[in-house]
Amino acid sequence: MSQLPQFLAAPGALGRLIGEFDWSTTPLGPLEQWPQSLRTTVSLMLNTSHPIWIGWGPETTFLYNDAYIAVLGEAKHPWALGRPMREVWAEIWDYCQPLVDKVFQRGEATYVGEAQLFMDRGGWLEEKYFTFSYSPIVDETGGVGGLFCPSADVTTSKLNSRRLATLSSLSASALGEQSVASACDSAMAAIGANPNDIPFAALYLSGEEGGPAQLRQTIHLPDPSPLPDQMTLEGGVEQLPVGHIQELPPGLANQGVKEALALPLVLPAQAREAGVLVLGVSPVARLDDHYRSFLEMVAGQVAAALHNATAVEEQRRRAEALAELDRAKTAFFSNVSHEFRTPLTLMLAPIEDAMEDSENRLPAAQHERLQLAHRNALR
After folding, report:
1. Do residues 115 and 95 touch, judged by C-beta distance below 8 A?
2. DSSP state of 208
3. What's 220's DSSP letter?
4. Strand ranges (DSSP E) for the chain?
5. What phi-psi label fits residue 212: left (phi over 0), alpha (psi between -120 and 50 degrees) or beta?
6. Contacts with 370 (C-beta within 8 Å, 6 or more apart), sequence order
7. Which of 196, 201, 223, 264 is buried most, with the most CB atoms less than 10 Å from its CB?
């Protein structure tokens, strides 16, 4: 094996891959003919741990370092080495081409922060966010010989921020509702505000008598819903294939939704589930532990909202029952008072007449007894 040129000496695998690649089949030509500007830039790229790629010449021939392998993914490494950039990132070329032309035609750099890109890194389009810059590389002629692109994958922070906003919205709205109906409406509205992570949703609620949960409300689905009217979970979270349902709305990048999660709505201190929440899975995201955990937390927030609303409704029903009992007691005692009052009223007149007649005829002791009976009747 021949010794690598000094400018390719660097930790990792890319120095060796570049040295062994047949560059004579590309516009760059054999390694021995590479200009010093290209050699220097490649050496700088290989000896940094930050993801960087270089596009050299009119075809923007692609070179990259070891850190950039994670950006390319298993579908494009090492295939991308030595190919035109328009082939390497064909799926985002319409976004990148104006930026590339700006570098080569006008010699101007570009900085892009948190760009949403749909990249094919494993046989399917994946939602990614990158912060990157395109900078011109000046060659020996004083013109633009190539493009230098350091990049940073900020997908995790962007997705976490977006999903946290959904959970915060659920907590702020649905948890404060005073009825189950309004809690359902608020929860589904909060879920519907994030179609990027949840392309569609369906809420099923269980009845008091048990049995399958009945479909109550949907988000981003046509009417009538293409989903079943009833849902029963045999145990825990279930992954549902939905790619065969043609009426489902597409997800990001106009990709068809292939699967959904059916999550039980478990209320504290209840032996049975309150219902089922079906959440569509984005077709441009891996259903990894972080994504699954987010969807489970959404279901947990909805269950908490239902629990709080149910408690408020129970408290309101108890208060109404106590108020009704007070009204019944008041009516009862009013009737009892009336029943006592009527005969006593009828008795007062004869007593008063007897008192007038007996004032001078009866002994004083008898008259006092009549007065006592009159006072007691009044009381």
Report:
1. yes
2. T
3. S
4. 52-56, 61-64, 110-120, 125-138, 144-153, 201-205, 213-219, 230-231, 238-241, 259-266, 273-280
5. beta
6. 351, 354, 355, 358, 362
7. 201
Closest CA to 184 of 313, 66, 64: 313
- Average pLDDT of span 339-363: 62
Which pLDDT does position 313 carry in this prediction? 65
Contacts of 217 (CB under 8 A, 6+ apart): 184, 185, 188, 202, 203
Tokens encoding 132: 């990157």
Name residue, tokens 């695998």: 13
Kindly report the average pLDDT of the chain as a whole number.
88
> Contact, 184 vs 217, CB < 8 A?
yes
Can you say whether the dihedral through the CA atoms of 299, 302, 306, 311 is positive or negative?
positive
Which residue is listed with tokens 């955990």?
293
Q: What pTM did the predictor assign?
A: 0.81
Does the structure show a pLDDT above 50 at 237?
A: yes
Q: Which residues of 96-108 are buried (b: 16+ CB within 10 A; e: fewer)?
A: beebbebbbeeee
Please, is 283 exposed, middle or buried when counting C-beta atoms within 10 Å of its C-beta (0-12, 13-18, 19+)? buried
Buried/exposed code over 15-54 (b: 16+ C-beta within 10 A; e: otherwise) = bebbbebebeebebeebeebeebbeebbbebbeeeebbbb
Could you tell me the two tokens for 199? 């392309």
Distance CA 297, CA 337 (A): 59
Q: Tell which wins on pLDDT, 98 or 340.
A: 98
Eight-class DSSP state of 151:
E
pLDDT in tens, 177-202: 788 899 999 999 999 999 999 999 99
What tokens were used for 349?
């007149």
Q: Give the pLDDT confidence of 1-10 residue by residue, as tens digits.
A: 468 899 999 9
Sheet holding 259-266, edge to edge: 230-231, 213-219, 201-205, 273-280, 259-266, 238-241
Query: pLDDT digit string (tens) for 96-121?
Result: 999 999 999 999 999 999 999 999 99
Alpha-carbon distance 15 to 253, whole Å?
36
